[in-house]
UniProtKB/TrEMBL annotation:
GO terms for molecular function: DNA binding. InterPro entries: Ant_C (IPR005039), Phage_regulatory_Rha (IPR014054). This is Prophage antirepressor. Residues 132-232 form the Antirepressor protein C-terminal domain. It comes from the Bacteria.
Length: 370
């Protein structure tokens, strides 16, 4: 029994003879003459097969691939070669138009069995889903109306926006530690429950004269944005995960710039107020002893909050270094660092210092405003 893939991928010497109008024995002779050169270059012989003639005798023939066939055709005239080329193109078009077949009859049988099993499974699933829809249709209708009324969004809608199913999205959110299931309802973990990401509603429905209550969890627009940010692709900026966040950040930046202008200029124009910063800070931590190093960084942090450029190397206002040094009791004023990265690291990794610095900033800000 011949391999199905072989029938599709080869052409017999008999078919070549019929196609070109030559006698089969002449085609066989041409193939045998050209085979040694092919073996020398390609490293393989032409595939020898057999067929039965009209009397039932078994006679030899060749099964040639497209490349082998066109190689042998170089011995034929132009018309014969043209017929072979056209026939191969026809076979390739038929192959592309037809669905892929299994490699042999055993695979075909297995494929048929699998196909029938899948059809049966699909029928069963359709029946189950049909019955389920009959039950949940009233609930779904109410659920959709609730979403539209409250401007909230279901998990299914968000999942569709992200290109996944609601089941997959719920599973991923669970794996991230964002939610867990209580009965049939998903609820947020303690870390996220007071963020305003979700809303719940209770409703009732009657099935077979039995009234039942259900709790549904839906996502607010804030929650929807939160989920989208979780699954943001790497192609988008890592600094701003959404247009809304960018808008808020720009607004905060504008507010900070205005605050710098309002508070930064007065303190730098009237540098006598720099010691006031230190005095206010000392009042807040009077019971604690602070090293000169810590006091130095405090001054730099507070002043940089007002106007960071004032501490950036050559842009430091003339006389500012001396006043800061005098306030801290430095004999050598050049020991004050202009490296804001050191300040940022110290500020970021010292919670107590960071808290007190912010408090001093608020106090001085209030003082300046007055």
């Amino acid at each position: 029994m011949k391999d199905l893939s072989l029938i599709k991928e080869t052409m017999s010497s008999i078919e070549i003879a019929e196609l070109t109008g030559k006698m089969h024995k002449h085609v066989m002779e041409a193939i045998r003459v050209m085979e040694p050169a092919w073996v020398k270059i390609a490293g393989s012989n032409f595939r020898l097969s057999e067929y039965k003639d009209s009397t039932g005798r078994k006679l030899p023939c060749y099964e040639l691939t497209k490349t082998e066939c066109l190689y042998v055709a170089t011995k034929f005239n132009d018309e014969a070669r043209a017929k072979l080329v056209i026939r191969w193109e026809q076979l390739e078009r038929e192959k592309q138009a037809s669905p892929a077949l299994p490699g042999n009859y055993l695979e075909a049988l297995k494929s048929l069995i699998v196909s029938e099993e899948e059809k049966q499974q699909l029928l069963i699933q359709n029946e189950i889903q049909s019955e389920h829809l009959k039950i949940v249709a009233p609930k779904a209708d109410y659920y959709d109306r609730t979403l539209m009324a409250k401007n909230t969004v279901s998990t299914t809608v968000i999942a569709k926006e992200l290109g996944m199913s609601a089941v997959t999205l719920n599973r991923k959110l669970k794996e991230m530690g964002i939610q867990y299931k209580v009965g049939q309802t998903w609820v947020l973990t303690a870390k996220y429950q007071n963020m305003g990401y979700t809303e719940t509603s209770t409703y009732t429905e009657t099935i077979d004269e039995e009234t039942r209550s259900y709790i549904s969890t839906v996502w607010t627009q804030k929650g929807r944005e939160f989920i989208h940010n979780l699954f943001r692709t790497n192609k988008e900026t890592t600094l701003f995960s959404s247009v809304s966040e960018l808008k808020n950040t720009l607004q905060e930046e504008d507010d900070l710039r205005k605050r710098v202008e309002a508070l930064g200029k007065p303190i730098l124009n009237d540098m006598k107020q720099i010691p006031i910063l230190l005095d206010r800070y000392k009042m807040m931590i009077a019971k604690e002893r602070l090293s000169v190093y810590e006091r130095k960084f405090f001054l730099f942090v507070v002043v940089s909050l007002y106007d960071p450029k004032a501490l950036a190397g050559k842009k430091m206002k003339h006389g500012l270094r001396e006043i800061i040094g005098a306030s801290l009791g430095f004999e050598n004023k050049s020991t004050i660092s202009d490296n804001l990265s050191n300040i940022s690291n110290y500020y970021a990794h010292t919670p107590k210092f960071r808290k007190d610095t912010k408090q001093a900033y608020i106090c001085v800000g209030g003082y300046q405003a007055n």
